[in-house]
Design a protein that fits this description.
Layout (H helix, E strand, L loop, with lengths): L4 H13 L8 E5 L5 H8 L4 E6 L4 H10 L6 E5 L12 E5 L13 H11 E8 L2 E9 L2 H9 L21 E3 L12 E7 L10 E8 L10 E10 L30 H7 L4 E4 L11 E5 L15 E10 L6 E9 L5 E7 L1
Parallel strand pairs: 1-2, 1-4, 2-3, 4-5
Antiparallel strand pairs: 6-8, 6-10, 7-12, 9-13, 10-11, 10-12, 13-14, 14-15
């Protein structure tokens, strides 16, 4: 993930571009990995950084911290944040790169919420500050057929077994912007790192999208992605609506303007944001693709201006860190449809 420039440089730009926030402060880095974010915090002037990592890479992180001369500032702690004990009662800042595929895959946000409730001092800073999830319809039969048909023959071997469950599982790949057929993506929830609870990580939220072109064979599925926002002010100073109103569909905005990354960057000095959507530069998160099972779902022609109304449901899977995503939708004058996809 260090090779993901969008991800790493967004954190770097925020941490080093807001040094006044870190001078003399105590920072907690949850899931530190190689320690890159901890070292950015040390460069920014943090007095002490507690870097927590549960996997064996903590040993590499200890070496990296020492090799770069930060051993007096950064302390690597091995274990789950819920099980270790920090040598301080509170920290001023919590930083973490916790986002997974479709945002909530792997379930790391649970640990961030626990750490916030246990260790963050009053008026402390959460990095990042919040995220927004989007959904949009996609329609491009040639692209989808090519994606699935790839497995028909791979170096002259039949690998169709690899594509048998593709419509039952969330697929992760980069979707060309041309495959989206909605006038604008629909934001269906925002998660504030200051106020989100464990209960908020499972939800059933409505969305509305307008089709902006004729779709002769029906849409092929939905695409989900997220935007991430870094703010130098605490949550009490951020205007944030937990369930954004998407009634702006008539003018194509669908409630996105207030927290669009480009708008957010201009709103206040020090802000940083990035998107993992099809319109942005590719990231290692790519997009979560929910393809319809056309064996049981008959396609319906759509025309420009038709609206898709539905609900997105996120539910934790039975396996640790797994996720189930369900979508219910219907079009103007059409029948209601529903499908569930697994991400594991």
């Amino acid at each position: 993930m260090l090779q993901d420039k969008i991800r790493t440089e967004s954190y770097r730009d925020f941490l080093l571009g807001n040094k006044h926030l870190f001078e003399g402060k105590t920072v907690l880095d949850v899931g530190c990995g190689t320690g890159i974010l901890s070292m950015f915090c040390a460069q920014a002037g943090a007095k002490q950084v507690f870097a927590v990592e549960r996997s064996s890479i903590y040993e590499k992180a200890q070496r990296i911290v020492f090799d770069n001369g930060f051993q007096s500032i950064i302390k690597i702690l091995h274990g789950r944040i819920e099980e270790i004990h920090l040598p301080v009662p509170k920290v001023d800042i919590i930083v973490s790169e916790w986002m997974g595929y479709a945002l909530l895959f792997e379930g790391m946000l649970d640990s961030i919420i626990w750490a916030r409730d246990r260790y963050l001092a009053p008026n402390g800073l959460m990095i990042p500050a919040y995220t927004t999830l989007y959904i949009a319809p996609m329609a491009n039969r040639d692209y989808v057929s090519e994606r699935i048909g790839f497995w028909n023959t791979v170096y002259d071997f039949d690998m169709t077994a690899m594509s048998e469950d593709i419509e039952q599982n969330v697929d992760i790949f980069t979707v060309p912007d041309k495959c989206l057929c909605g006038s604008s993506p629909s934001p269906f929830t925002k998660l504030s790192m200051y106020t989100a609870t464990i209960k908020d990580l499972e939800f059933d939220i409505p969305f509305r999208c307008m089709v902006n072109e004729k779709v002769a064979e029906g849409i092929d599925g939905f695409v989900i992605w997220f935007d991430t926002f870094f703010s130098a002010v605490s949550d009490s100073q951020i205007s944030l609506q937990q369930n954004p109103d998407s009634q702006g569909v008539e003018n194509g905005k669908e409630g996105r303007d207030a927290h669009d990354p480009h708008t957010f960057l201009k709103a206040q000095e020090g802000n940083v944001a990035f998107t993992t959507g099809p319109s942005g530069e590719p990231t290692h998160w790519e997009q979560a693709v929910l393809l319809f099972d056309r064996k049981v779902k008959k396609p319906r022609d759509l025309k420009a201006g038709d609206c898709l109304n539905g609900k997105v449901r996120y539910k934790k899977g039975t396996e640790a860190g797994s996720l189930e995503i369900s979508v219910e939708w219907e079009t103007d004058g059409g029948r209601a449809e529903q499908q569930t996809w697994a991400l594991k």
